[in-house]
Amino acid sequence: MRLNKRFGFMATLVLCAVMMAGSAAVAAEKVIKIGVLFPLTGTAAVAGQNCVNAVLAAADVINKKNPDIKAPLAAQEGILGGYKIVIVKADHQGKPDVAKSEAERLYNQEKVFAIIGCYNSSATKPASAVAERAKKIFMCGCSSSAALTERGYKYFFRHAPTDAIESEEFVQYIQYLNKEKKAGIKTLGVIYENTEFGKHAAEEAHKAASKAGLKIVADVPFNNGATNLNSEVQTLKAANPDAVFGAALGGDYSLWVRTMKQVGWLPKISLNYCTGYQNPAVQKELGRDGDYFMGGMGYSPALAKQFMPEAIKIEKKYYTPRSNQPFDSDSIQEGVMLFVLAQAIEKAGSLDTEKIVKILQTEEFPSAMSLSGNVKFNPGGQNAKALSVITQIKNQSYGTVFPLKYKAVEPVFPMTPWAKR
Amino acid sequence: MSNFLQVLIDGILSGLLYALVAAGLSLMWGVMNVINFAHGEFLMVAMYICYWIGAILGIDPLFSWVAAGIFLFILGCLTYKVIIKNSLGKAAMAPLLATFGLSMLLKNFCMNRFTPNFRLLSGTIMEGKTFTVGGAVISLPQLVTAIFALIVLLALVWLVSRTRLGWAIQATAMDKEAAELMGIDTENIYLLVFGLSGACVGVAGGLMTTYLAVHPEVGSLFSLIAFVIVALGGFGSIKGALLAAILIGLVESFAGFYIAAVVKYVAVFAIYLIVILVRPKGLFGW
Fold first, then answer.
1. Which of A152, A188, A276, B42 stands 20 to 30 A from A240 (CA)?
2. Chain A: nearest CA to B101, how far in angstroms?
3. Of residues B165 and A26, which shows the higher confidence score?
4. Could you tell me which CATH class the domain A28-161+303-376 is placed in?
């Protein structure tokens, strides 16, 4: 009798252990780990944290049932019949070598299925090279260096328009102003951070300007994180270009604007690449000093109201509680990439990387958080549906000025001089 | 001509600010042979103090720099008491590594509490005010910061060279044991030196809030330039730090404008290497 009781007790224990191990194994298998690799420290940390929050917001939409949101995968819970997306964060500090080693760590040790990253083009380049060698998927939201999709990579996919596309758009806008408003813009200055992103943006600016007959009178690279930008702004002021194209991230952007105010100089028009211009946190600190600058954007609250209402719902429900601000043009694109990847996985019906890559390369994906409404990748990974508009900021509100189809406000041209503000 | 004058003035104003940041480091390095790797983070902390005093209490950095100076004096003393004192005389790299750890702690603490957001005070008394001299535009916040820096530096020079306390500091720097035999409390001297070093960088950081955005990485390049200035000017020499800093400010400004903006730091470090090769103890070292 005692032996039977003891045997029964032991058998029950073993059965419970097996069931727990089994359910743990089942639970472990029901997650898809996605790495997010962004600058969480360093000069671009504000933007990096926003990018992570955007991906987390997208993960919440995918993982939970959201009947109120009309976006792909929002109405169901998880993908592949209940798999949840688990985000694994990593910080590349804005350094290419750290990006490379963190990508290796994410793929090899954390065993992530794919990586979304890296904001800085200089970090995206080596990290995506790691992915390509490992035959793993790399999704890039907002890194804008055109060179990234000119490498012929199979596993790399990028959402944002390139600096080449934006440069063409900036020049088209200048030509429009010259023709319709008799703007008389003939000379151009370019100021840019001395990194992969900045140098490439400057090269594209040069190409686009020379095609349009604009003369480049100042080419001013600077070291990001500089203690001052006095020499740089003095060089611009001495050359006095009609227009300035800027590629300065975060704090450097605010330092540049404040230094121009200090020396009392402004060009007639300033157009900015994917930079501090697009960051609401930077514009909040600049206040009215930031007014009348322009830049390329794939998102603004005003655009979203008109063209992307579901993005506003996602923003209010999952993004703003984390970031204390609306989406910005950069971070939202990182969120888009998780949606696109999740849709591709769902269509593949499995976690077969090659199958998913084939789907990413050939299919078109609806995207509630993309201005064009869809995402489709060319060979090389560039989003053929990438769209950005030119906005002008006034009182921390971005108003769309070009293309004319999206125009919502009349631009202030030329920029109001400092003394008259 | 106005370009030349502008570049000259920019260089001098930057140099004076660099001098104040570097002066405390020079004193500490000269007296105790200790490199404070957290010096840039002390600057960052001072800027945050004045930013938050301005943002929450509405007190302009023109006045709140005093609070930053006092806070950083206390932080400097605490750093000595808690970290440096326990690592001096142990392994050669112990104080260096300890201050490196402190720098990581301060930076990550501020990153965690205040986020990496760039924070810029607006509506300050001197905001955006400039005046013109001979065609050169002078920013009032930068000018006032430079003047304050010069006053503090001159006060420090007077303290070190003309007071009994200053002679005690110099004696401790020259020979600690001999100074103790002369009845100098070297323990208190070390404590004071760390405190003064903190106060100098606290004043600098506090005033910089009038025109520079504060974020957790703001101190990094200032710290590096401070090391260059200390090595160039000579360890322990405040006068050397002042002259070296102005030289660095001018080299940065002239190279940045007349050669190319992107080479300004190349020129700074090149000058440093040349001087060190010719005179390893720096221009005025003890």
1. A276
2. 16
3. B165
4. alpha beta
